[in-house]
TrEMBL record:
The chain crosses the membrane at residues 12-32. The lineage of its organism: Bacteria, Pseudomonadati, Campylobacterota, Epsilonproteobacteria, Campylobacterales. This is DHHW protein. It comes from the Bacteria. Keywords: Membrane, Transmembrane, Transmembrane helix.
Length: 359
């Protein structure tokens, strides 16, 4: 009898401790709000933000302000929508840049926009070459969890997952960002863009010093990224193209001008196969490779993200804007008829570039 009473006592103590622990973790998650889900603003500066949640939340109230969308990973996020607006009649673009986006993200959001009757006249779609090795999202990736409306889940369950989760890295990062404020990122929901004002200031003050001090520009990378998601990416891209045709959406596809240091991570033949896959489904503008823009580090904040000026010359090439100077070797319009010639040119270009690096 005594043992039974002791067992009940310990069960109650354990239950109380569990409740207190959950309350403590939930309180920290709510106050610090590492992904800006609850908008508590206890800490003003945002270290990371779940753009998939924030932007759908914003667009649900403001979708009729826009009739065109820019889809891409964070790399398209530095391009203001008005850069594209001027080239298409009565266009009002929104930059739907979302962290580490891949073709799965573009497909589920396009489906949701159509289903929810978002006005869409134009879709300006940027595809990263790194997408050849990625598809879908994991349940544990809280920074990139889709909005519950997009995947048909309950909002309450979504909030609870962010209250009860364990996010030491993200919490520490946000607290440090608010104390140190070394590399602030500005997020602008009305346009969808993000900015890096402190890095921009450093670049303008002393570009040579910036390049010397930016670690990602000064490392030697190996070609390790493979084309592992060919089937998934092919199906998703074809469905995106079909949805645009069916819904009378003007689709413009182009590839990301990755910095030379990021280009160095792609296995040559896998990268070329990925481009060929795109060309088999749709025409596109290819800005990849080692060209005047991608080999100049000053066009980038680090080896992953290009600056606003690059977004402007991408658009100038696509829309044939003669008022903006675009390097001759930057941007090729690719079709299934010229893809083989284009790939052969890229292969020679890359082999020559690799040869120069070894000398």
């Amino acid at each position: 009898m005594k043992n039974n009473m002791n067992s009940k006592k310990w069960i109650k103590i354990l239950a109380v401790l569990c409740v207190l622990s959950f309350g403590f973790i939930g309180g920290i998650n709510y106050l610090v709000d590492p992904f800006n889900i609850f908008h508590t603003k206890f800490l003003k500066e945002q270290f990371q933000m779940n753009e998939r949640f924030m932007k759908i939340e914003y667009l649900e109230e403001n979708k009729n302000k826009y009739n065109s969308y820019m889809f891409g990973s964070s790399r398209i996020g530095t391009t203001p929508p008005n850069v594209i607006d001027k080239y298409l009649e009565n266009a009002k673009f929104y930059n739907f840049t979302i962290s580490s986006a891949n073709l799965y993200d573009y497909l589920i959001h396009l489906k949701y926009f159509i289903k929810s009757e978002y006005p869409i006249k134009n879709l300006y779609l940027q595809i990263d070459i790194s997408n050849m090795a990625s598809y879908s999202r994991t349940e544990s990736d809280y920074l990139r969890k889709p909005h519950p409306f997009v995947v048909g889940e309950k909002l309450e369950k979504y909030y609870l997952s962010y209250l009860s989760g364990f996010f030491p890295f993200n919490i520490k990062g946000k607290i440090a960002e608010n104390i140190n404020q070394k590399d602030l990122v500005g997020y602008y929901l009305e346009t969808g863009i993000w900015t890096r004002p402190l890095k921009e200031k450093k670049i303008k003050e002393n570009p040579e010093k910036f390049i010397q001090e930016e670690r990602s520009f000064n490392v030697q990378n190996k070609r390790v990224v493979k084309n592992t998601q060919s089937e998934n990416n092919s199906k998703a891209l074809k469905e995106i193209v079909d949805l645009c045709l069916k819904n009378n959406i003007n689709l413009i596809i182009f590839t990301t001008p990755h910095n030379k240091n990021m280009m160095d991570t792609f296995i040559l033949e896998d990268y070329l196969k990925f481009l060929k896959m795109i060309s088999s489904i749709a025409n596109f503008y290819d800005f990849t490779g080692y060209n005047t823009v991608t080999t100049e580090n000053i066009n980038y904040y680090e080896s992953s993200h290009y600056r606003e000026n690059v977004g402007r010359i991408i658009a100038a090439r696509i829309f044939n804007d003669k008022s903006i100077e675009v390097p001759e070797d930057f941007g090729v319009f690719v079709t299934k008829d010229n893809i083989d010639e284009h790939l052969e040119n890229l292969r020679k270009q890359i082999e020559e570039y690799d040869l120069k690096k070894t000398k």
